[in-house]
Amino acid sequence: MAPIIKVENISKTYEGGFHALKDVNLDIEEGEILALLGPNGAGKTTLISIICGLVNLSEGRILVGGHDTVSDYRKARELIGLVPQEIALEPFQTVYNGLRFTRGLFGKRPDPEFLENVLRRLSLWDKKDAMTRELSGGMKRRVLIAKALCHSPKILFLDEPTAGVDVELRKDMWEVVSQLKKEGVTIILTTHYIEEAEAIADRVGIINKGEILLVEPTRSLMRRMGHRELRIELTEPLAEIPAALAGYDLEFGADKQTLVYAYEANGERTGITSLITDIKNAGLTLRDIETKQSSLEEIFVGLVKEQA
């Protein structure tokens, strides 16, 4: 099956010669959640804006649901809902009228029942008659999400949707995302909360300096690039690591009572069994053992540093 979004060799160069995107290729499958990660200025928002038709591309082509975003803009755009990073709402418009107006812009018939359902899902129904200027920042963020959903898009872009909002809204947001995925909506998100991307994304794309470094299933990436640490707490502190354990490249933890052993998460042989045996043979007594796997954030930081 063809991808619902196909990005082919796109580049974006602004006046003055700044290359925001450089020969980007990306296929996004229908019904998946793709987390797009990158440092500030990496090109995430530019890429999303080009796909959504808000910024003109310099080179390349983008297909959304088989529709070219330039030659068949309207057909492509009606498939997309966008929650932008910046909060921009008409201050003297009520929440409900804002949704009704946005739905009309996409040529959709009035559907009060549908709009009520959208507002209830986002805990906004009791605010439907409130002017947006009266709402808190978190509530305004909810309104942006509601506006993005009001024309039943097949694709939803979330550009830093939980930036600067409270824990409750973040939790509600991810519940809505999970439900939309079950309904077949394709979701592309950028976020600084990388632990959330790790938890909900089917695939992760990492972008830096306008280039896609990789796009890979989250679990596969964690297995391939993840590292693990074995932290071994001893009953007594050591002055130095015994020579008999030199072959394991051990390091001390925060104190000299903990030994840290790093190994590959996907390695066939970890060496843990022989390490434990050699520790006992060296006359050391174990108090506790703990393992820790590297997070997606650590993998992300490592990749970005490599390109720097």
Automatic annotation (TrEMBL):
InterPro entries, A to Z: AAA+_ATPase, ABC_transporter-like_ATP-bd, ABC_transporter-like_CS, ABC_transporter_ATP-binding, P-loop_NTPase
A Pfam family per the record: ABC_tran
UniProt cross-references to SMART domains, sorted A to Z: AAA (SM00382)
Keyword Transferase on entry: no
Annotated keywords: ATP-binding, Nucleotide-binding, Transport
Domain ABC transporter: 5-234
Gene Ontology MF terms in the entry: ATP binding; ATP hydrolysis activity
Keyword Cell division attached: no
Gene3D superfamilies to which the protein is assigned, alphabetical: P-loop containing nucleotide triphosphate hydrolases
UniProt cross-references to PANTHER family, sorted A to Z: ABC TRANSPORTER ATP-BINDING PROTEIN (PTHR42711)
Entry similarity comment: Belongs to the ABC transporter superfamily.
Descriptive protein name: ABC transporter ATP-binding protein
Organism listed in the record: Pseudohoeflea suaedae
